[in-house]
Specification:
Blueprint (H helix, E strand, L loop, with lengths): L13 H25 L2 H33 L7 H12 L2 H7 L6 H15 L8 H8 L2 H8 L7 H12 L2 H8 L7 H4 L5 H16 L2 H10 L1 H12 L4 H16 L4 H7 L3 H10 L5 H16 L5 H9 L1 H10 L8 H19 L30 H4 L3
Helix pairs in contact: 1-2, 1-3, 2-5, 4-7, 5-8, 7-8, 8-11, 11-14, 14-17, 16-17, 19-20
GO molecular function: protein serine/threonine kinase activator activity
Family: Belongs to the Mo25 family.
InterPro entries: ARM-like, ARM-type_fold, Mo25
Length: 388
Amino acid sequence: MSEMPLFGKSIKNPVEVVKSLREAVNALEKVDKKAEKEQLPNTLMKALKAQEDVSKNLCLMRTFLYSTAGEMGNNDAQPDPQMSKLAQEVYSSHLLLLLVQNLSKIDFEGRKDVVYIFTQILRHRSGERYPTVEHIYLKPAILFLLLSGYERPDIALSCGQTFRECTRHESLAKIVLYSDDLYNLFKYVEASSADIAADAFASFKELLTRHKSTVAEFLEANYDRVFTHYRALLNSENFVTRRLALKLLGELLLDRHNFNVMTRYISNSENLKLTMNMLKDKSRNIRLEAFHVFKIFVANPHKPKPILDILLRNREKLVEFLSKFQLANEVDSNLAEQFNDEKAYVIKQIRELKSIPLPVSGAGGGGGGGLNQGPPLPPPNPAVDQNG
């Protein structure tokens, strides 16, 4: 690559690579503050020059990492000694934190290099260990700075991509899940920029679906707080937010790891009312996603009395609505057949509902458990969800 000899020497010493980049970023940070304060042509030019120096050094480190990427990508390979030296220097110099803190001062191409550098160093292994993950675990400010990057349109996507690379590691995801900062994501997914909102939702979904056992434990322990915020997404005025949140809700409830969470959610009559209201949404997509949540309420063989009462009161309207509910014409015939089978199942269960008899002396009121309501439905085919 033509950028390799930018400093008049080949890239042989990883310590020098890190040191040079750190010095360039520190210089940029210093001159940028001065330029912002003075707004003078001379200091602005110095800031631009410092930015160029950072970009050159980022390119140099990218080139170095690119040459060792094959080693890092091979799980069976021994750690590259040069890469290990570079990584250790990155940790001891706190370079990752420095780069994130100054990301908005770096130019567009430089930000792409930062994402690449961050990703490659994250993937660096030493035996069974991921030293960079351990480094970030001890310095979680890096994670939270990346997450707060969604508040800065110029760096939001770079931060989001890097944040997801971090949270693919369970130990780092757990830090975020159990932090107050997690709840900022509920705000970020409703960003005015469609691109930023979509990226934030990708991070949100990644956190709630990748590490299933950890997430299930977290959701159980923080059910009220999480679903209070989640309900706001389901009531959002933004169509895309509502649809994505509703679709993700269905996936979460149907994941076997979240059985206790699902049981609690479908035992709440307010949740059923909200889902039924979304069945009437003007958008076919919203109605379809609502159906996949609604059927979980119906398929529950142990419905609490408030849930059963709502379904009984609305039985005729529900049967009439579902009988007319169709997918879009362009949906694949096999997917349409699956949907129609599920719909027929739900209609049958609603028609066969019976009220719970009043408990007699010594009875536990468990009559609902003997209803002929069938087993829970299988998860919907994701491809069906995306159509209609």
